[in-house]
Amino acid sequence: MTSAAPHVHSGDSVQKNMLLVIVALLPAFAVSIVAFGWGALITTAISIAACVLTEWCITKYMLKQQPSLLDLSAVLTGLLLAMNLPSSLPWWMTVLGAVFAIGIGKMVFGGIGQNVFNPALVGRVFLLISFPAAMTTWPVAKGFATKYLDAETAATPLSYMKHAVLEGKQFELDSLKDAFLSCVPEHIMGGSMGEISAIALLIGGIFLICTRVISWHIPVSILGTVAVFTGILSACGIGSGPMTHLLTGGVMLGAIFMATDYVTSPMTAWGKIIFGVGIGVIVVVIRTWGAYPEGMSFAILIMNGCVPLLNRIAPKRFGEVVKK
Amino acid sequence: MADARTKNHKERIMKNTFCIGGVHPHDNKAYSAHKAIVEAPLPKEAVVLLSQHIGAPAQPVVAVGDKVQVGTLLAKAGGFVSAPVHSPVSGKVSKIDNVLDGQGVPAPAIFIDVEGDEWLPTIDKSATLIHECTLEPKDIIQKIQDAGIVGLGGACFPTHVKLMPPPGKKAEVLIVNGVECEPYLTNDHQLMLEHGEEIIVGIKIVMKALGVNRAIIGIEANKPDAIQHMSELASRVLGIEVRALKVKYPQGGEKQLIDACIGRQVPSGALPIETGAVVDNVATLYAIYEAVQKNKPLISRVMTITGRDVKKPGNYLVRFGTPTAQLVEMVGGVPAKTGEVIAGGPMMGRSMSNIETMPANKRMSALLFMPEDECYRPQPSPCIRCAKCVDACPMGLEPYLLSSMAKGEEWEEMEKHKVMDCIDCGSCVFTCPAHRPLLDGIRAGKGKVGAMIRERQAAAKK
Questions:
Q1: Do B434 and A14 touch (CB under 8 A)?
Q2: Mean per-residue pLDDT for B264-293?
Q3: A322: chain B residues, CB-CB within 8 Å
Q4: For a disulfide at A250, which of A226, A296, A308, B340, Cβ 3.0-4.6 Å?
Q5: Contact status of A42 with chain B (Cβ, < 8 Å)
Q6: Based on the domain organization, do B287 and B401 belong to the same domain?
């Protein structure tokens, strides 16, 4: 046979990258099971199954193409969507969210690689707007003893933060160490399934950077911007300090796993940095002055919309500067 | 001498790699590494191509029936950017006709029936090392031109043109390319080990021709013995240093090598001489030594013939004109379940559909037999916008964008996005997780945009 050069390949594949992200999410997933027990397992399973089934049906029956589920992108979307939900969400809402995420968030744009907005976040925001009560009701984390039938719910740090800001006070976490680790019952923070343990997420993030699946630009610029912006604001008496902001809500999850989604993030280093700074600014603005306690999903989706513009920034060209 | 060193002291930032992009293919050099250079047997019929270089093809000066010896001029240069072609064998010219090249395309060549192995009496065949060169620079360059020396790194650019910078440009440093970044290839490595001294003399000759007092030999770190050997030899000569470079493809690319060695980037659209550097491959310098000190024109080269299943892989000194079929036989035949035969390395080499008649020539640095199981190309899937191609591109381009522009035939846009800077290294395709044939569109773009630029320049001249 003959072919054009090059005649060798690195062996990388779409599937490999998706699998590495799934592996990187496992620590956070494990913590969610330790925290929320059956709810975590069931919601995740339903989300993944619904995403996979939706993509398969749309590809096969509406697009009339061969479904390529082996690339694991639908599985990953399902897992990410679940990580953004409260473990107590009714099963049929999870299904609806998954169908919306894949159907409207991805397939409508033309399938993998074509969507503008992060599909998991599209699904989450759809659920948040459609079912605000269910989406902001958080079970008390008690592992497999978590009560789902006679639900026991509690507010999360984010809701405390929002109340404090509205009252002109500044809420700080009792124990930063607990918020950071958040993997032993009794010391588990409330929140959506994937966002509670910063250390689990960070382990995943470092893994992804070391395996060169993602680059440091987006996570560092998001977290850095949130830290600096909230540092300035809290020093002026507005809102909580940087550590509280970084360790609560979907900031870690969003910075490491959602904003770094290949398809919906910029292609160049500077594009990524501006993207991250934009997300950081918007999330702090929403948390401090917006109506919602949680701003990360909206911040990312808004910046997703700016990505085509950011992609007009050219990468560093060879031979641009003559150093003589 | 001391002035030159202190003036350049700041440049020696001990940078040991190029600064943008690059990939890491498997080395695969073990099959032929450290195999001593073996002379390939002479062919029965030598088929000498008239175009073995960039530029106008050479024009025959012999006729059918002429008797020739090794070194006899067969064809004179077809212009300034061109090179003469000499006979690699002794015998009788049987015809001047087309031969089918590696892709089955007819190429004009001179066919010689080989008789014996008589060399021109002016050629010094002894192995004695001749250190001194008393010629004037312009005479050195003339001798190099007359010997048909072209760049043996694969591009075959006529060397004398490189050694004569255009008016207003001055050479400051000679950079020697001992990098050999293509996987599988080991011919330059072996040449440095066995003929390092001749290469150093070649370097001194070119330094004299260029009027520079500084040379840097770049060698990738996967050749520690070559680094050590050449460092040892270079230490005896003022002005020549060896730089051990990080193993990263395409470190051997001219622009990347200049960046790594002296920290200067060739500006987009300009020639390397803009940075003050002239780059020559070690094999070219060896050929220059033989031409200037031994009066031997370019009639043979060391080739790597290799592959996972090849019976006798190694480094072979091959006379040009030897048909591929004979080289194949020499290494034990085409291995079973071979998928592709490549002339050159796996990243930039050309796949051959004709391994019978295509003759060895200045351009053919290697023959690579790729097993079937390594040739399979998966179906391309949609672009997932991972930007790995952007990260990999050593020229800072956006292959995903250029490729989709090519599909839309947006040639002007491609020119704006610097498609002409592409060096065809293949790093983007190598890295793409979706197995997209990015380079196909980019090459098409380069062709179209190149034609547009030439038209524009021609119209401007009127």
A1: yes
A2: 95
A3: 264-265, 267, 274-275
A4: A296
A5: no
A6: no
Q: Smallest CA–CA separation between B430 and chain A, in Å?
A: 4
Same domain, B249 and B131: yes
Distance CA A141, CA A182 (A): 10
- Please report whether residue B233 resides in a domain: yes
State both tokens at B381. Answer: 């899937």
- CATH number for the domain spanning B250: value is 3.40.50.11540
For residue A98, the surrounding DSSP H or E stretch is helix A91-103
Does A221 fall in a domain?
A: no
Q: pLDDT tens digits, residue range B92-137?
A: 999 999 999 999 999 999 999 999 999 999 999 999 999 999 999 9
**pLDDT tens by residue, B159-192:** 999 999 999 999 999 999 999 999 999 999 999 9
Tell me how far CA of residue A19 lies from CA of A72, A166, A212, A213, A252, in angstroms.
7, 42, 13, 10, 20
Q: How many domains does chain B have?
A: 2
Same domain, B288 and B426: no
Closest residue in B to A7 (Cα–Cα)? B346
Q: Same domain, yes or no, for B288 and B399? A: no
Q: pLDDT value at position B38?
A: 96
Residue B370, in any domain of the structure: no
Q: Where in the sequence is the domain holding A30, given as residue range(s)?
A: 14-134
Whether pLDDT at A38 is above 90: no
pTM: 0.91
Q: Are B238 and B199 in contact (CB under 8 A)?
A: no
Going B224 to B230 to B235 to B241, the CA torsion angle's sign is negative
CA distance B350 to chain A (A): 6
- B345 Cβ contact list (under 8 Å, min separation 6): B182, B183, B184, B185, B365, B366, B368
Q: Is the domain of B139 the same as that of B286?
A: yes
Instruction: Compute the average pLDDT of residues B146-151.
Output: 96
Residue where one domain finishes, among candidates B250, B268, B294: B294
Question: Hey, is the C-beta of A312 within 8 angstroms of any chain B C-beta?
Answer: no
Q: Does A211 touch chain B (CB under 8 A)?
A: no
Q: Report yes or no: B94 and B145 within 8 Å, Cβ to Cβ.
A: no
Query: CB contact, 8 Å: A316 with chain B?
Result: yes
> What number of helices (H) and strands (E) belong to chain A?
14, 0
Q: Is B283 contained in some domain?
A: yes
A-chain residues near B374 (CB < 8 A): 8
Per-residue pLDDT of B344-372, as tens digits, reads 999 999 999 999 999 999 999 999 999 99
> Based on the structure, what is the number of domains in chain A?
1
Inform me whether the pLDDT recorded for A145 exceeds 80: no
Instruction: Tell me, yes or no, whether A271 lies in a domain.
Output: no
CB contact under 8 A, B374 and A114: no
Nearest residue of chain A to residue B375 (CA atoms): A7
**Pairs across A and B, CB distance < 8 A:** 156
Same domain? B397 vs B290 = no
Contacts of A4 in chain B (CB under 8 A): 351, 437, 439-440, 443
